[in-house]
Amino acid sequence: RSGSFVYDVDLDMTDWSPSSVELRCISQIGSRLKEKDCKFERLDMTIEKAEEMFMDNKYKLQQIPSIASKSESSNHVTVYRAGEHIDISRGPMISTTALLNRFDISAVHRLDTSLSNTMFRVQGIGMPTQLQLHYWTYEQLVNKSKKLNPALMPGTEPQTDTLESTEPSKQQAVN
């Protein structure tokens, strides 16, 4: 695997290239999730329920039938809830955000996709509290996670019966 997590997002910007300060600020926001101790809850739902849940997200709507067809029943989609956030993911997830030790957004790449000319892939790395790493080792992992992760790109079909966590989200701004 690539060693990084990814999240594809349509930011309605065409040429954003975040500075190292911006990446650190976004990383700090993610790091604050630890204090919230949000539990990750796995939810399996029918195609119809998933389409209803994501009806305002054209990217996820396009992917739901393909994702469901790969499920055991060919009619279910797995989503995870953490606090108020719900998203499609094959998992598995850690049980709670309190288990996050180190968290960094390492890169934001503009994607070449037919779906949108403003699609970006946010990449990063997160380490659980149980895994204590020397700072040098962690920095090596952060540097590796900067390279564009080749996980499933928006608008393409999965090649296997598993799905990377790359379902795009429509957002106007990063909080």
Automatic annotation (TrEMBL):
GO terms for biological process: threonyl-tRNA aminoacylation. It comes from the Eukaryota. Residues 149-175 are annotated as: Disordered. GO terms for molecular function: nucleotide binding; threonine-tRNA ligase activity. Keywords: Protein biosynthesis, Ribonucleoprotein, Ribosomal protein. Residues 157-175 have a biased composition (Polar residues). GO terms for cellular component: mitochondrion; ribosome. SUPFAM superfamilies: ThrRS/AlaRS common domain. PANTHER family: THREONINE--TRNA LIGASE, CHLOROPLASTIC_MITOCHONDRIAL 2 (PTHR11451:SF44), THREONINE-TRNA LIGASE (PTHR11451). This is Large subunit ribosomal protein L39.
